[in-house]
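Ticket opened by: R.M.
Priority: normal
Category: complex prediction / small molecule

The reporter submitted a protein together with zinc ion and asked that the result be attached to this ticket for the collaborator who will pick it up next week. Submitted input follows.
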Amino acid sequence: MKITAFIRSLAAFIFLLTISSSDYKILSQEIPDNIRILLEKLSPLSYERGNRELIYQYSIGDLSRLSDKDTELVIKELSKRGIGVITFWKQAEAFERGIEEGIRIARLQENLGLKVAVDATDLLYGFYDKTDFTAHIDNEGRTFYDSSFAGHWMGCPFTLQERIPVIRSRIIAYSEAYQAAGVNIDIVTADWEIDGPHEWNEAWVNSKKCMTCCKNIDNIQDFYVFQSKLRSLRSKLLEICYTRPILERHPKALITNYGTYPNDGWRYWYDYFESPQIDLPNIKDQKAIYRPWYNEFTETGFTMAMPVVYTWYPIYNSYPEYTSDYRWFYNMLKVGTNAGKSTPSEIPIATFFHWHTTAPPEKQDLNVKQMSRHSYQELLWHLLLRGHDIFFSWCRKEEIETEMTLLQEVYNNSLNYNDWLQSGRPVLFEVPAKESSVVSGVKLNNRVLVRRTDFTDNKKAVKCIIDDKIIMVPYKPGECQIITIE
Ligand SMILES: [Zn+2]
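Result attached by the on-call engineer:
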C-alpha cells in the first residue's frame, strides 16, 4: 500500500471512530452506497476552503431516507471533504414530496453555511411530449419525428409554444415554495440535452421535409440560418421556462445547463449521441472535425457557464500525430480554454469533468489508451488557471472513488491559491498545436501564478508574453510558480 493510500485509509478509520456508534450504524446501513464510498475513501480537506465553492458529484443527493440529524451529519462530513449535496427536483407523483425534501435539505445546508444546490433536469423534460401536436408534418400532412438522437423522440421545434406553460409552471412551483419557506436557491444546474430544438444529426434533413419548419425558416437551405434559428428558439425556451422564473424569485441564483457556455463560434467536442457530419460546415484538425457553434449563452439569460470536458472515446484517434496523453490533453484543453477565454469574468464557470474514457463503444479498439491520471490532474490545474471555477463530476457508480479522488486532490491543493484564483485574471490561453510545453497563468498586480506541463523533454525556460511583457517560465514539473513581471 502506498503511503498516501495508507494515510487516506487511516483518516477514514479515524473519522468513523470520531462519530458515535449509533451514527456509524446509520452511516453504514442507511446512506446510499455512493455517499458511503466518498465518506470512507476520501480524507477531509487539509487546507481552508474559504469561500471557494464545493465540488459537486452528480449522483450525490437524495438523503430522503435519513433523519434530519443524520442528514446534517452526512452533509457536514461531505463538506469537510469538499463535496456538496445536490437536491434533484422531481416531477409527477414525486412533485410535492420533492418540494418538501428540497426545502428540508436547503434549511440544513443554510444552517451549515453552505450553498443550496439543486438540479432541475427532471422538470425540464420534456418539451416534446411524443404526441402529434409536437411532431413534424410532411407535404402530405403526415406527422413524423426524428429518431436520429440515440432513438429519442425529437419533433418539430416550431410546435412548442403550448408546452411553455407546462414546463414553466413546474419551475415556478419549486421556486415559489423555496421563497415562501424563506430559503435561498443558490446554484441551479440541469442536464437537459436530447429534447427541444437541435440542429445536429438528421435534424436539418428532417426540418427541410417539414411543412411547419419550412414555413418558419425563410432560408432553410442555409445551415447557418437553420442553426441560428433553432439555437435561438432553444435558448428562449430555457430563458422563459427556467432562468427567468427562478431569477424573479431568487435574483442571485447561479443558473446553467450542461454544455451551455460562451464560446469562440466553434465546438470542439461531440456528445455521445452526436456524430461528425462532414457535409456540414467544419474545420479539420488532423482527423478531428470541429463544428460551427451558435452563441446561445446570452439568450438563455444564464448566470453561470457549464462546459463539458470529458475524455470522449473518439478523441484518441482524432489526433494521430500526438503522443497518447497529448491527444486527450490537447482536445480537452481546447474545449476548456474556449469557455475560459470567452466567458466574462463576472460569470462563474462550472465544468463537468470525467476521466475514465467516456462512452466507449461495445467493441473497443485496443489501441485506445486511457489518459494518464497525471495528465488529467495537470489539465485540471490548467483549467483553474484559465478561469474555471467549480468542478462538477459525472461518472458511473464504479468510477466514483477514482474520479472524486482525482478531482479532490487538485481542488484541495488549489485552495492554497484561493486569492489568485478568485481575484486574479487568467492571461495565458494558448493551446499548442505542436506538442511541447503548456503554460497557463493568472495575473494579480505585477505577479503571475503559472503552471507549466511538458509533453517533450525540453527543460529550458519557456517564453510567454503577458500584456506585452515577456516572462520566462522555468521547468518545474508538478508545481505552480509565482513569477514577478518586470
Ligand atoms: Zn418541423
